Amino acid sequence: MEAIRLEFKSEIKEKILELLSSFSSDELKIVQDNSTFEEEKKMIQSRINKIDNGTAVYSTFDELDILLDETISKYEG
Question: Domain boundaries in the chain?
Fold first, then answer.
């Protein structure tokens, strides 16, 4: 099956649901939207903007390795 995301005015919701209800459950399944989609979209766009405007902070593999070791040590107890 394929999935699409629809955005529509609330006034037409009943018409859309009426149309969709004409399909069998084998043909169509209504899946609830991920409530965090817009938040994730904003976060990703923010990161893209930082990369584009040159304010993104990058780390080397060595720096990431040190951070990972410190994080593991912190929770090993």
Answer: 36-77
Task: Tell me how far apart the alpha carbons of residues 13 and 77 are, in angstroms, rounded to a whole number.
Answer: 53
Question: According to the 3-state scheme, what is the secondary structure of the chain?
Answer: CCCCCCCCCHHHHHHHHHHHCCCCCCCCCCCCCCCCHHHHHHHHHHHHHHHHHCCCCCCCHHHHHHHHHHHHHHHHC
The per-residue pLDDT for range 39-65, each reduced to its tens digit, is: 899 999 999 999 999 999 999 999 999
Q: With bands split at pLDDT 50, 70 and 90, how would you rate the model's confidence at 7?
A: confident
**Token pair in block for residue 32:** 């609830």
CA-based nearest residue to 30, from 42, 47, 13, 44: 13
